[in-house]
Amino acid sequence: MEVTEQDKPKVQVIDSLQSWEFHVTQASNQNCPVVAHFTASWCMPSVAMIPVFEELAFSYQDVLFLSVDVDEVKEVATRMDVKAMPTFLLLKDGKTVDKVVGANPEEIKKRIDGLVRSNGVSVE
């Protein structure tokens, strides 16, 4: 089966502090909300949330989804005060407006809905 552009996950993988700052700043400049998944390869609930997170990225076309491996990009996890995996941060204008700790797909979707509504973004 051929993978088309739209089949690819929309989740951007953050590999450095610079990459994090670039994406968050760009999203902020475009008034685009951000949802960041802080994950770790050794954390099974975190790994289990990856396909759920990718599915959410398809559902919310006007939201930027970022994935941050806390072991690979410790600076970002420290700066964002992430202490447990998985942690989902919802950002608006570059600032954290909500946080979900733990693998809870329904709660994360509910919070993203709230973020999208507060941002005036349409859900397709």
TrEMBL record:
PROSITE patterns documented for this protein: THIOREDOXIN_2
Annotated Thioredoxin domain residues: 1-117
Top-level division of the source organism's lineage: Eukaryota
A Pfam family matched in the record: Thioredoxin
Stated name of the protein: Thioredoxin domain-containing protein
Lineage: Eukaryota, Viridiplantae, Streptophyta, Embryophyta, Tracheophyta
